[in-house]
Every structure is written in structure tokens, then in C-alpha cells.
Amino acid sequence: DVNLRSTVNFRTMDLTAKAGKKYFAKSDTLVFEPGERVKTISIETIDDAVWDTTLEFNVELLEDEQLKNCILGSFLKIARIKIVDDDTFPSNRFTRAKEERSFNRVSKPRLMWDFAVMNFRNPTVRKGVVRSICIDLLENIAFILDLFLNLYMVDYVLCKKCDPASAGSGLTLIVILRCFLFPVIHYLQYRETTWKVGGATRMTLQSNLLRKYLSYTLGVLQYIDESELILAMTRDASDLASMAFMKMPTLFSSFMRLTMLLLYQVAMPIALGKSLTITQALVRFGPAFAFPMVLISFLRYRTKTTEKALEAQHSAQNAMVQHVKMAIANFEIVRDYRKRGATIEQFEEKIRAFNGRFAHTAAINVNNNKFAAWCTLGLTSIWIQIGGMQVASGTMALGEFLNYLSIFAALGAMWGQVYSLLLSIQAAFASLETICKYMNGDVEDEARMFTGTSNLRHCRAAMMEVEKEALEGDPADLIPIKFDALHFRYKDQGGIGAELKPSTAILPQGGLYVLVGPPSQGKRTILKLLGDVLLPPCPGVAKVDSEGSGALMIPGHLRVIHVSKDPLFVEGSLLTNLTYGVQNGSSDGSLERVVAICRRLLLSDTLMQMLTKDFSTSWKTILSSTDQALLHIARALIANPDVLCIHKPTLFLNEKMGDLVYEILQEYVLNRGLEMDSNPYAFHTRRPRTVIVTARRVAGTGAKVADIVFNVSSELGMMAINKH
């Protein structure tokens, strides 16, 4: 009763956006004084210049002791808020590359560095990386300790001049020190597998690539390479995590080991009471600095060759995936035109092309990886010759010679590891470039903000007009769907659809409306505009793929579902598909209601048995065209939206079944839902139901049940006609 005081509590709830970092948490009580119908909740966001994952949080109305003189709606009690982030991935340093779509021309090491910095801001990643570096530091300490213990054992425990009586205690001490750190390192490395660094990195990339795809503008969707995008989500995201980011802590640890090795070579003579000559210093430190200069020079020399080979390999793999995707999607054409053999032969050609590219890349990688081993072999060979002669002449102790040999081998292994890590990171450059391209594609967020704000303004004005007229009923139910001189045209049609000429129409809530007219005149465009598939004209918004004028007003509290003409099904059981549009926990998806609606549509006994007993996915293989069309309609009715927009619902049905569908749609409108509680109180607590359908022409039952029939034409736009 709006003439009484109503209260309800609300609160914010974290999703990907975290309170205190991207927005300020808020909880309070909304108080609606008698006659008051609208309240505004303001949430303050925290802005920064750093790219983040798509950030969302919920504002939830609570069903608690403060809920007075009101009930919560099924769908409107939770609002999912999206914080629009227009920063560039991985950092705003590359904004120009984003605008010019030129990530192929930017510095790849700098791009990789900025990605690593961005990813390191993830708390899970940051904690795991720091822990991994600590483990590597412990390993480096154990490595240096082993070097010292080997030298100590040869020159001070087992030498000819050493006291045999103290050898036992010395060896025991060496064994204890060597074994002390090993179990600790083993346990920590075992625990490292649970720290989710790679998983969190892949999650960030893969989930946001999918989010981006679902928000792309029409222009991006028209020209997107779906196979490349699929591989970006699977192959490239995984490669970037495992071959690049996960290698960076190891790379850092390798440099730590080099530093510790250099410090060891300075500290060891001091600890043993020996001086360090200039010649000895050159022998000790020269290789440590010569190695990186040689390896990095070779790496720079091979960069373009390696990148070009990897890009060619990825392109060949993309072509394979695209061919398989098209073969599966067009199976019926392949079968009907007897092109199975030709399709397989084309695929084999692409496999051969990929194998050739793969072998070429593998050969390049073998040569790249072996270069460090060649350098190490050359250095140790030279030292064996020079140092061995000094041992033979008595100018160098055997332990010192062996220690140097271990150090040079360790230097070679370490710089070989660094080189291998750099090659691995370099191999991920192509993956990073692809991901940057798709992460920075144009999305509809700004346009949706504009249309949402504009629609809210129109709805509030309409509410004021309704309240002035003091009509009977809830004013929110009296706000119509309104086309106000709406003109819509694609900037680049490309065969997508027709232009909608300026149209003015009013569709009161609680009606059944039919749009008729010749093909390609704009009927589907109208349904897409109503269903939020297409956005109305957005003056002043840059990233939109349409143009026009006028306005479209849809009451913001209404839940609208758009249903295309072609039946589509998701992965899962028949029941999962039929309840796809139902909110979790809602009684709309009860098995009893689902079964009742399916029986109303005269689904076959076989399908009814699968619905109630069989939860397998085999049901898809037995569907006829009529079954698919009826399940398509059943799913929409089970979803129970306030506004249901269906494109050609009777296209695949005979006249008798078409009449039945129109009768059921009429009942859906009259009863404010189908198979719902018929209690008068329950009826009045539900919103009116509105159905808008398209047809080539309307006759029979369709003409009888329609409240208004609109003719849509390229000359006159949308106009009401006399259905009789």
C-alpha cells in the first residue's frame, strides 16, 4: 500500500570489485514515505589510471526485519553494478597503440613488463610470487653452501695434510649442513603448487577476454576472427601465464644466484684467509660478465627470426581451428552436398601447413637453446686446460681448481637458464600481442551508460505524467513502451539488417503486439532494440556502430527478453535448457511448472520422459524442427519476463500449432504469466506481461488475439494498422 510508510534495508556486496579499492561499501535503510515511489542509492567509486579486470559489485535489497509494507521482486532485488574502466590493457602507456590498433609495432619487452606489473597487483598472484622468490632464495643459499662445503671438504678435511682424527667430525658436520635445507625446500616446493599464481593469471586473462567478447560493439563482432579469439582464451592465455609470467620469478632468482655467486667468490678467499690478486679477480668475475653480453647479443640477433616463425605457426594453428569450427557448424551442408572427402582433404592441407611451421619453429628453438650450452662447453674446456696445468705445476690447489670448475659450470648453467627463460618469455610475445588486441577492442559500455541514463530520464518524466492523471492502478504499470520518432540505421550494414525509418508508437504494458511487413523492412531491428541487443541512437558517443535520432523508452523496472527466430540450445540437459532464463532459486523454474508449460505446447511423450526422468544430453539428437521451435518458445515462457520479444515464433510450425502458440501467448499476457498462482492477490503483485512478436503477415488466431498490429516498411517506418 503506497499510502503507508515502507522500509527496506540494502547493502553492497563485492564481486570482482572490492570495497575500499574500487568503491566505498554502503549499507542503509531506504524509507518510502506515504505516496513516495522512487528512491536513489548513490555509491561512490574510486578512480585510478590503472587497467583492472572488469569490475562489478552488487547492490542487494534485504529480506529482514526492516522489510515493511512491501515484498521483494524476483529479479529486481539485486542490481549488478559494472564499473566502466576505459584504461588500456596492460597499461595506459599503450593508449595510442589501442586507438591506432597497432600493438604489432610497440616494444614487446616493454609490453611484457607492463603486463607483469599489472598482473602483480592481483593479491593472489603477488603473494604467490613473493613466496616463490623466497623458496628460490633458499635454494640459492643451499647452492652456495654446497660450493663452500665441497671446497672445505677437499682442501680442509680430506687433504693429505689434514688431521685424520678430525675427519669424521668434519664430514658429519658437512653431511648435516648439506641435508638440513633439503627437506625444507622440498616441502615448500610441494606447497608452491597450491599458491594459484598461474591459475589466477589465466583466470584474469580468460574471463576478461570472454567478458570483452560479450560486450563488443557490433562493428567489432562483424570482423572478429572467432578461431583466433578462442585460441587467445585457451592457448595464448595459458602460454602467457606459463611461458612468460611464471618464468619471471625464476628469472629474478637466477639473477639473485649470480649476485650470490659473485659475492661468494669475494667472500671465500677472505673466509679462508687468502688474498685475491687482479688475475684471480679477472678469472673469477670475467666470465660472469662476458656470458650475458654474448647471450643477449645472440638473443637480439635471433629475435625477429623467432617471432616471425612463431607468428606463422600460430596463424597455421588458427587456420586449423577455423576449418574444424566451420566443418562442425556447416555439417549439414557438407553432408547434403557430399563434401566429406573434400572437407577432410582441405583439413589435411592445413595440418601439413601447421606441421611444417611447427617443425621450422622447433628447429629454431633447438639452435637458440643450444647456444648457451656451447658457450658453457667452451668456457669449461678452456679452464680445464689452463687451470689443470696450474694444478699440475703446483701453483693451484686441487680444491680451488675444482671449485672454479664448479663455478664456471654453474655460471654457464645459470646464464643458460636465464637465456632459456628469456627465450620462453620471447615466445609469448605473439600471444601477448593477440591478447592485447582483443582486450582493447571497442565495447558498448559507454553507449549503454548513455542509453540507460537517457531511458531513466524519460521514464521519470513519464511517471510524473501518469501520477498527474491520477489513474487507477500502480503508476509504474501505466508507463508505456514508447517509440518517439525513433530513427535507426547501421553505420555499416553489410547485409545485417534494414534501416528503421522514423517511427512513433505507444505500446501500453499488458498487451500482445504483432509486427508485420515484407522481409528486411526493420521488424527484427525493432525487436533487437527492445531486447537491448541493439542500442538506440547515442548522440555524442564515439564507439557505436549505428546512427539515427529520436528516442526509445522502456520502463526500467521491466525485465525484457529477446528471442531470435532460430532455435538454439546450450550445453546440458533438457531441463537445464528450459530453465536457462530463470533466476537461481526462483519458483519459476520448478519442475511442476516446466512440465505444465511443455504439456500446454504439446511436446512429444518422448521429450516429456527425458524432461522428467532422463538427464542426459542425448535429447538433442532426436529433435525435429517442430520440437526445436516449441522448446524455443517454452524456454521463453518459463523465463517469465515482463516483456517478451519473439521473432517469428510460428515460422517452423503448421497453422494449427501456430494458432495454439498465439493462444498461449495471449494467456501469458492476460494472466500475467503462464502456469502461475491464480490467487487474485498473487495476480496483482505481478507486473503486467507484454508480448511483441513479428510475422510476415498475421491472420487467423494471431489477428484475433493481437491488441495492436503494426506494419513495418522501409518507406513509412512503424505504423499501427486496422487488423480487421
TrEMBL record:
Membrane protein topology class: Multi-pass membrane protein
A Gene Ontology biological process term: cell communication
Pfam families per the UniProt record, alphabetical: ABC_membrane, Calx-beta
MF terms (GO), sorted A to Z: ABC-type transporter activity; ATP binding; ATP hydrolysis activity; ATPase-coupled lipid transmembrane transporter activity
Predominant cellular place of this UniProt entry's protein: membrane
Record Gene3D superfamilies: 2.60.40.2030, ABC transporter type 1, transmembrane domain (1.20.1560.10), P-loop containing nucleotide triphosphate hydrolases (3.40.50.300)
Keyword terms, alphabetized: Calcium, Membrane, Repeat, Signal, Transmembrane, Transmembrane helix
Domain ABC transporter: 481-721
Gene Ontology cellular component annotations, sorted alphabetically: membrane
Protein location: Membrane
Residue ranges crossing the lipid bilayer per the database entry: 128-153, 165-188, 255-272, 278-299, 371-392, 404-429
Record protein name field: ABC transporter domain-containing protein
